[in-house]
Amino acid sequence: MFSDFLVAHYDKIEKIGIGPPSGPKEFLGLLEKSAAGQALEMDEIVALLNSVPEPNNSRSLLDFSMSLERPHRREILLLPPLYFSSICENCCRYCDFSPNGIRLSPREFSDELAALLQTGYRSIELVSSQDPALYLRQAGFSLDDQKFDIRPVLEYVDIAKKCLAEYGGGMLTSNIPPLDRESLRKLKMAELDCYLIWQETFDAAQYGLLHGNGGPKKSQKFRLDSVEYALAAGIDHVAGAFLKGLFDWRKEEACLYLFDRHLKKNWGHGFSIIGTPRIKGKFIRSKQIRRYHVPDIDYELNIALDRVLYDGVLWLQTREPFALNRRLLKRFGGGLILTITCSTAPGGYHKTFDAKAQFPVFRRELSSSLTSLEEDGFIVRFDWDSKTLKEFQRKG
Questions:
Q1: What pLDDT does 170 receive?
Q2: How far apart are CA 207 and CA 225, in angstroms?
């Protein structure tokens, strides 16, 4: 399991930020090696991330990534989230979800889904908090062996699949709490296409500090291992990311890369989607994370690296202003996923609910956004599925 690898080798990751940067020629050679589909060794990914802040290397990275051709460079895939519960028993120090949230009824969920499908969307991300009424702890539950009864969750997945079928089919991605092997097998049987789990931070000490107030999320090992449980269950795609701003983003990037490489080696393919979330809102001022703030220039360097390091499809989200996402698209090209229409509170599409959003988003009027992207020369696609996602991945 990658969780064991991370514990055994994290001391090498900690060298990022204290070692000398590589020279321009060596730095460019590492970029070229990764772009050619060759795996970087541990010392190489550490050297690469150690070298990014050097001004000449930063410019070289941006130029190299901009010139790098990836599949479907002029196309953009749209993916909206659909939150069906914000009731949460976890106590993350950077999130507004709580035990006082809202859970959509099946009828309300169907209305939300209809609003998105009628807009034209055919790929939907289903999102929920750690709602104890949806993820029922079974006998023998422990933090490192979390067994759930997920029949309440499967009801929402079944509704979504049936509604998608009525519109000609599409793709379902789940962004839900980490699950045990049997639960993931049931999701596979329910025809889930992609299992998404953001790792938040890979640093064990920081993870414990931010999730130490109780709830199943306290176990970092189970969260990491659930990715491989999903692949073992036969789910076609997995998506990975860290939340930029919780810890040193260069160390996080190295860990995500090593995780991706581990999946390739042991499961035949890495992450199909690489998320790019950056923490927003009032929590960025928290004393636990404020020194890890990721400014725009570092965020752009991270996106440039993602294009070089991963075969998976990048996902630009509405945590960022549309103007910034548009600038990144114009600089680096498409061939990625973008969210424009977005609500991070249950019920936010078809009616107004008095519920807290998980985080602030830049929700922009859809038609004007599409016009802007088309003026930039991009083809925007609402109707895509699991097969499309494979076609957009770089062939390693």
A1: 96
A2: 15
In CATH, 74-392 is 3.40.50.10240: no
Nearest C-alpha neighbor of 364 from the set 347, 381, 339: 339
Residue 274, sorted as left (phi over 0), alpha (psi -120 to 50) or beta, turns out to be beta
Core vs surface per residue 333-360: b (16+ CB within 10 A) or e: bbbbbbbbbbbbbbbbbbeebebbbbbe
Q: Would you kindly state where each structural domain of the chain is located, as residue ranges?
A: 74-392
- Report the pLDDT value the prediction gives residue 20, as an integer from 0 to 100: 87
Contacts of 392 (CB under 8 A, 6+ apart): 71, 72, 75, 77, 313, 335, 336
Scanning the chain, the segments in alpha helix (DSSP H) are 2-13, 24-35, 42-51, 55-67, 106-119, 151-166, 181-189, 204-210, 220-232, 249-267, 296-309, 322-332, 366-375, 386-392
Q: Are 246 and 279 in contact (CB under 8 A)?
A: yes
* Low-confidence spans in the chain with pLDDT less than 50: 361-362
The pLDDT of residue 362 is 46
The predicted-structure confidence for 153-196, as pLDDT tens digits, reads as follows: 999 999 999 999 999 999 999 999 999 999 999 999 999 999 99
Facing residues of 82 across strands? 126
What pLDDT does 105 receive?
A: 95
pTM higher than 0.90 = yes
